[in-house]
Structures are given as structure tokens and as C-alpha cells.
Amino acid sequence: MTLSTSTWVPAPMRRRLIAGVAAGFLGMGVALGSGLMAPVSAAESTTITGVVLGVGANETQRIVTWYSSADTAQKIQLAPTAEIVNGEFPASAVSFEAVGGANTSTTGFNRHATISNLRENTAYSYRVGAEGNWSPAYAFKTQDFEGDYNFLFFGDPQIGSSGDVAKDQAGWAETLKVATTANPDTELLVSAGDHVESANNEAQWDAYLSPEQLRQYPTAATIGNHDVGGKAWEQHHFTPNTDRSAQYYTGDQATRSGGDYWYIYKDVLFIDLNSNSYVNPTDGSAGGDAAHVAYVTDVVKKHGSEAKWKVLVYHHSIYSAASHATDADNKIRRKDFTTAFSELGIDMVLQGHDHVYTRSYSIKNGQKENPAEKPGAADVFPGPGGVIYVTANSASGSKYYDIKKPDNTGTGVEGLGPDPLNPNNYWFNSVQNQEHVRSYVKVQVKADKLVLQNIRSGTCAAPNAAVEKGLSCTNTAEGQPVGSIVDNTTIHPYHADGQAIQVNVPNPAPGEFGWTIDGYNGLVDLGTAQERNGTYFQANGKINPILVSDSRRSLAPWSISANVGDFQDADKKFSGSYLGWNPYVLDGGAGAEAGAAVLSSYDDQGKGLSVSSGLAAAVQGHPRGGAKLGADLDLKIPDSIAKGNYRTTLTITALSS
């Protein structure tokens, strides 16, 4: 009889496995607190509401917060979106256990959990709850963990302040839609505070939390003066690295929200303060602005070297231009904050509260740093200690404050006098704008600059509750359309008297692992089997050599194996187990070590090459390079096999981590 076998590789002939992160996702849930009351049965029906995706301590984390109608044990379930099939999470989905407690602003309970060990450039899906009581699935996407990015900053939505929650909600939702449609790859949504009009009004919170973007992009929340009077803000926003000591609260910690927190996202150290606590205790105890300055100092000292830029966020603008510009408490903050922020090397301060847009000159120690800096300059070059202060206008259109005129109190730290270069503005403001239209601030973070833009997200038309209720507005959709820019400036870092030299080092090419047939992948013809001892037939041959190449930097292990199916000739066949082999390395390299010999099942009653058997492999840490692999084939079959011209396929499999 004539027997043949063929080695088979589907087109294209060359197989490549790109080195990368292991396919298995690893995670660990860490309980940061233990506020859970005695849980009832997880099988009890539970309603999940108010899901919010928040920032974590860095770009590899997210914190999810939600409300629950029942005090059950709950968790986050997470999986790469590519692994979700027909809406079903895979068995490999990772869980993060939640903690929380009873709500004080309403009935029910709150929960939060931290997602960790996220991979860059990955789309994820998540849901919260428990088996049988899951929320809908939501999705978010991580970007590259290094390099340029942008984040969006939103001024006070203050849902309910117009007197019409539905109109305020519509304006807020439209701004988020406009902003994220124009910037789909934005990486953070940063809040200026005053999310709602009344701190514990859950109907207003429901309206604020209704846009889907708050479950798709991580939000960094800030406490405003309208948020601070209840616990709802804390119940809806659990923040990373938060100090909830008494000095960062105003009043009773049991009934009010508070705390300062920080996080690092790529090249920016963000520090968020509860500016509602500002009065320095007269008895010398910790608290007020002095406590905030101490907090910022400590964080910058410990973590400032880990980022290129330092950005502060708090609610009460100290350099605004409207109703709150003259507030006594903001004069106090100017005196308490500005010198410390300059000395600590803060680059930018983001604020809200005054429902108007302003961008300050570069301010050093409470004074305009460079008297020659022009109003509205497109490029700003702060010197050492120069800080840019930004105030965001309303993101919802629920309320606007009109700009006030400067007074005659001069240009000192607490003064509100005019700008000598533009007497209609306060001395500290490079740009002031109030058009009674919704807007947001986009900040592009680049290696050598920050690009700041104030962008219109609406026009005079609805949704714009304050205007709908009678406030004047003269913009036109043609002259000032949605997406048009109010202010645009580039902030350049200080490089002293020398020349700064910068180089961008990308991620190294990961290299690749691959194999191919050496030369023509022709039929491996074993010829005509020879009868041996009148009891069996035997045929021999060699596989077509296989070339392996491995240029991966990870030096990860690899293996090449193969197996055959049954030998067939029309309706006649016999088992592939009768084929054995003896692998060897023809040309050494890439750490290749030949696999063990496999006997024909005729010899050892085993399974031969009918099961996957190793041709060659390399261990972790092997040298990069290439190898040529071969194997002698040995077929032994009983002499009872019918005459025929039989064929099978050798299927080759490459594995690499």
C-alpha cells in the first residue's frame, strides 16, 4: 500500500503572535471600609440606581458608586467588551466587592467599589449588583497610559436653581453630549461643584446623574456650597486618597459632605479641595484654609515629582468677575492661598461658583506676575511661581451671573480695582466672558504645554433655562455656534535660563513570535509501507522543516506542537495514533529545545501523534533569535489495514504567552 501525510498551514503561510499582555485579566477587590450593615439575602429583589463612574488613584483604576434599595452584598463585575457575547458576561469576568452603608439623605443604601489593574487601550464593560439583580451593563474605554491627552472641566450644573429641574437637566445633558461628541477620546470629566441646588434633594441628583456619559467617562467630582449641606454628595461620589478629617469639613461630619483628595492621571497631579471649609480657627487648631494649604503641601511634597503638571480644583473662585467676585470669603482665600500655591509650583487652578467664565493673568504671590502680559494673550509664559486661575461658566444654563465692574480698592492681594491694560476687567483677569450661554472648558495636556479652551456648548436657544425664563441673550447660532471657541490660550512651562531638552521615548516595539515552513510546503510522502516480520507495515519520512523566529523583548516562553487526525482513503481509514516522531533542532537559536520522541501506538499502545505532542519549546528568559526544527516520522500499522493510498493532515499549533 502507498501511504502519505501532508503538513498543513492555512493561508497565509506565516503565523505571527504579537507579544502582549496575558489574555487572562487579573484583579483584586480591596475593601477600603466596612460600612455594610448586616446584609439580607442576596436573592431579595434589589433596585440599582445612580451608577457613577469615578476616577481612581491613577489611570489603572476607576471607582464606581451607586444606590441600592436593599442592604445586600454587592459587587462590580468587569470584562473586556470583546468578551461579552449576546449580553452575557464570560466566566472569566472579574469581580470587585463593594462596601457602603445606609443613606441619610433618602431611604436605601449606597455602595462603592474600586476597579483596579485596568489595561491601557482596552474597551471594558461592567455592571453592579449581584447574581439575579444586576444593573444594566455600561462601557468605558482606557487610552494609552502615557502621552498627551485631554480632559473636560464643567462649571456648576446646579440642577434645580432655575426652578425647573427638567430644563436644567436638559441643558446639562446637552452640554455633556456636545462635549463628548466633539471629544470622544477625552479621558476625564472634572467638576467645579454645585451639582444640585439643594444638597439632599434626590430628585435633583437623579437629574444630574441621568446622562449616560457619567457611566462612560470617569468623573472627578468637587464639593460646591450647594452640595455641602448634606451627605448625598458623599453617597454619590466616593473619591480616592481622601482625607475626611474634621478640618476638611464645615459643621457636623455626620450630616455634611467634605474632605480633600488627590489622584495622578498620566502627567498631572490633581488635588481637589473642599473650599467650603475656609475659616481658620481662632484657637489655633487645625482647620480652614490653613488645613488645605497643609494638605496641598504634603501631597506635593510626597507626589509632586511623579507628575509634570500640578492642577488644583475647588469650588469657590478667587479670581472671578461676577456676583461672587466681591465676596468677603473669597478675599480671605486670596490672602490664604495664593502665595502658598506659587511656592508649591502649582500650574493651574480650576474653579466654579460664579457662573461666569474668567481666565486670570499669570498670578504670583497674589500679584500679576508680568505687568506687560497682554489681555487675552494666546500664549502665556508663567515664570517660577506663576499660576493660571480659571473659572468655568454654567454647564447647564440653570443660572448665570452678570459681570460686575471693578471698584477703586486697587490691585493688592484683596483689591478689586481695574486692569490698567483693560479697565473694564478686574486687574487679575486676562479674559472675562458672560454671554448667557452654556459652555465648558477643554484642557489639552501635552508634554511641553497646556492648551486651554473655553467652548460654547449651547446658544441662546433651549435648552437654556435661565434664558427661557427671561434672561437676555444676544448670541446667534450663525455668529456664535455650538462648538465655537470663547477663549484659547497655550500655557508654556518655565525652563529657567537654560535650554530644556526633551525626548519622547515610546513603548518599545514588543517584537513578535512566529513560525513558517522552510521552503515549499509540499506533500510529505512516506512512500510505500514495507511489511515487517509478517505482522505490521512500516513507513518513514521527515516533516518539512519549520522556522521559528522570536524577537520579543519579553523573552516569554513559546512552544510548537502538532497532531494528526485519522489516515483516510475514501471510506477506509485508520487511527493517527499509529504515527510517531522523533523531534530535533536543525539550527539552534531562540532557546529552542526539541520535544520528546513519541512512539507509534503499535509499539506502546499509546496515542501517538493523534494527540498534541511537542516539537520544540523555549523557557522564559531565552535569547531572542531563530531556530529550524525538524522531526523524523515513524508509521507502524497492523497488517490487517486494507490496501489504499491514505492521507492525513499534520496540524501545527504555536503557543506563546
From TrEMBL:
<feature type="domain" description="Calcineurin-like phosphoesterase">
    <location>
        <begin position="150"/>
        <end position="357"/>
    </location>
</feature>
<dbReference type="GO" id="GO:0003993">
    <property type="term" value="F:acid phosphatase activity"/>
</dbReference>
<dbReference type="InterPro" id="IPR008963">
    <property type="entry name" value="Purple_acid_Pase-like_N"/>
</dbReference>
<dbReference type="Pfam" id="PF16656">
    <property type="entry name" value="Pur_ac_phosph_N"/>
</dbReference>
<keyword id="KW-0732">Signal</keyword>
<dbReference type="InterPro" id="IPR004843">
    <property type="entry name" value="Calcineurin-like_PHP"/>
</dbReference>
<feature type="domain" description="Purple acid phosphatase N-terminal">
    <location>
        <begin position="50"/>
        <end position="142"/>
    </location>
</feature>
<dbReference type="InterPro" id="IPR029052">
    <property type="entry name" value="Metallo-depent_PP-like"/>
</dbReference>
<dbReference type="InterPro" id="IPR006311">
    <property type="entry name" value="TAT_signal"/>
</dbReference>
<dbReference type="InterPro" id="IPR015914">
    <property type="entry name" value="PAPs_N"/>
</dbReference>
<dbReference type="GO" id="GO:0046872">
    <property type="term" value="F:metal ion binding"/>
</dbReference>
<protein>
    <submittedName>
        <fullName>Metallophosphoesterase</fullName>
    </submittedName>
</protein>
<dbReference type="Pfam" id="PF00149">
    <property type="entry name" value="Metallophos"/>
</dbReference>
